[in-house]
Amino acid sequence: MGDTSFIHLTDLHVGDPNVADAHLFSDTSAALTEVLSMVSTMDQAPKFIIASGDLTNRGDAESYRHLKQIMSATALPVIYALGNHDTRAGFYTGMLERQTDLDAPYDHHQVIDGVHIVVLDTSTPGQIGGTIEPAQFDWLAQVLDTHAELPKLIVDHHPPALGDAPDWAHWRTIDFDQSRQLAELLKGRNILAILSGHIHHDRLSIWHGVPVIVGMGQHAATDILQTDVLRMVSGVSFGIGTVRRSGLTMALVPLPSDRAELNRYPLQMLRDRQEAARTAAR
Q1: Total domain count, the chain
Q2: How far apart are CA 194 and CA 120, in angstroms?
Q3: What CATH number corresponds to the domain at position 200?
Q4: Which residue stretches of the chain are H helix?
């Protein structure tokens, strides 16, 4: 197997340009267009693009159609995952022109250039945090047994919970118990990395021996220097991955930014919103 390079995008948050959106804090269409233009100038063209969720900001079909138009600038295969800002029905109808099973999780997998890419839909309708349903664990177990000889990239929007106990800000991750179940399922597999987004800052963790690579994305950046409030500042980055026989390298490419403040969210508000959604879902 030779070297295989790919692009990691996340949190595109593209919106329908004909609809005003007070919760869209930057020109995400322009940012994505610029990133794709940069990718097109690479000396060694990547083999594929991964877009790990929050593809649109509102989840409406027209926003996905606009995203599809922007992405037509590249001839590379694009592997999409869904995030909490996405809706399954909007994605299926606007991006895939699909009219059946509109509530089904968008779980899928494929092999490109010797890399097995497995996409898990951790979006949970109405909630900020991520979940994995029992049927999805069954599907994942079966899929991981296919192409066992190939290195695998797991793609999901929400990163797994990292600590030994549930985080106060559990809306940032996959459900804690389900994260532990995922770790057990991945143990001993040929996993190169998990690629995620959601938290809007570049981060690398080694989680039960598996690299978890989170991208900042193309909408806004979290100011991680402030922990008492969710402060969003201007910022865009994308990742360039290279798969070698020895493993995976990720290079992060930040675009110039003045880090101007775009918005602030009280953390308690986000937790209350997630708790209310979880209670309503029971």
Answers
A1: 1
A2: 10
A3: 3.60.21.10
A4: 28-40, 61-71, 88-94, 134-144, 176-186, 267-281
